[in-house]
Amino acid sequence: MKKFLVVFLFIFVLFFENSFGETNIEIDVNISENYSVYLLTWSITPKYGYYYPYGSEFKIKLPRNFEIINISDDDGEVRFFTENYTLHLFTSRNIHYPNIYRFYIKFKEINNPVHCDNEFYFRSYFSSKDFSILRINLPDFAKNIFVKDKEYGRVYNKSLTFYGDDYGYISLFFLRDNGDDEKILLNFKKFDLEIPKRYEKEIYPIAKKIDENAIPALEETFNKKINKTLIKFVPQPKENWICYFQNDSIYCGVGILLDYENIAENIIHEFTHYFISKTIGDGLPPWFEEGIAEKLGNEVSYLIGYEKDINFSIIEECKNELKHYFWKEWECEIFDCNSSYLNLSFVGKCEQRYGKENMRYIFSFYAVNKSIDNNFIKSVSSFFQENNIKIESDAKNKNSIVVLLLDLFQGKKEFFEEFKMIENETDFITYFKRFEEAKNKIEEIKNISDFDFYEKPKKILSYSLYYLFNGNLSEFEKNINISLELSKSIMEEANQIKNEIQKINSSLTCFHDFVSSLIEEAYRNYAYANFDESIKYLEKAELEKSIIDKRIKDFNKTFSEIKENFLGNIFSNDLKDIENYILECNLEKAEKKIYEIDKNIKILEICLFAVLVTFLILVFIKYY
Description:
The chain is of the alpha+beta class. Helix content is 47%, strand content 19%. The chain folds into three domains: 13-175, Immunoglobulin-like (Sandwich), CATH 2.60.40; 183-418, Neutral Protease Domain 2 (Neutral Protease, domain 2), CATH 1.10.390; 429-501, no CATH class.
């Protein structure tokens, strides 16, 4: 049996901060038997005369495809947090020379669940003011060790030693030998393909057709352009799988490279899962999603010249053996659900003869192919993208959601019912009609309003649609009611503000320029549904208007008094100037002029009074 080179890429960046003193570091790299769990023992020893106090911070940068299991030191758990894929560690006690402090960092690979990897890549940043030491102890199986792209000769018992002035940036590469297959990365427009180099000649034309014809066909079907992804051929573990889609990448077992006829269909099948994930979501029941993937995998591979024969003869032979729990068991294997379904399966003759997986995929493909077409898929995908919703993996009532999609987009249900895939499902169509009624009601309210103030209730209404397509009916009803109540409340508040704007605006004169500008700001905020700001401007406008009105009232009173005063005739020309100012709406000049006239009249009155008093005194002296 041929051995294939199994590749594992691990990027690890270590930053060492010597804020308090020079430090020697030793790192032990240990890997679990299945090469998926990693333990770094990070030993820190301050140099003589230096120390690190409690709470000193050290940083390690991990790649995205790793997940921390636990972190501790010799005394127990340590304080840490992660930020931008950087792990920040804090010492739990003081570290004095010559004591050794150890962090134990355990993490696992989450991007590729293959269990027999053999390639290890280590990058470390090491800086020092003095000749501090960094020692890295590698696993026993490490060979073909490279440092900074050059073979490293100073290896003693799998231990590498570096000095502060030796290397500023250290790159390590070592290999566990499991064959001699060289890998090659083929670059295409829509994806990169990593395969053993010896398959390049056969696989390249197939991949080229997938890139140039198959992917555009899927983009048309799902009404969605995709980002570039990675297809990687890896060794297959004991589990029975061909290809799978995970974390925006597609992994295929290297074994299928020997079966060229089905490679295209398998890859297109997984790309269909990619499109479903990006448009509809990850929560479709497996019999429906796998049926779509099988349908499009076969149709599109046939489009680019690869045909796959499928034996549908078992449909009539085996359909009577199907029970609802046969499909629920499949769902429970993928999603969290009632585990009792996993114990209900009865292995019938067909399952014994053809195998459970074979029956699942053939019946799913047959039912989906007979029940929906590509227009259905495009309509559903477009609907979900337009409404910015997805079916999540933890969605409830998954089967009822599929029935709703079939009802909304003219799919058929007969085969799904006949094969017991759906059975006594909740009628979600009545809830969707409730959504449409609420949507129409908000639209009616919007149409009788001056502007569209209803972005927030419409957003809440869209949440209700999300909850509906995730089977959460209580939250659906809650959001429907909130959106309707909020729309009515907004309409009432908008009408109140509008009436107040009209009321103030109708009472303004040419003397209220500043008030008019405040009203304009109030109206502008009203138009953009910033009601709180609009009310603030209205309050300012009312205050400013009251001040202007009082000035006008005081001015009119003084002006009338002057005109009635017999001394006012003396200032007739000035009074005419004031009248012109009033016509020009120049209240300030009019006020200033009337103030001067009023002051002069008061001076004249005082002078006349003084003359009169003097005259009376003289008369009194003369005659008395």
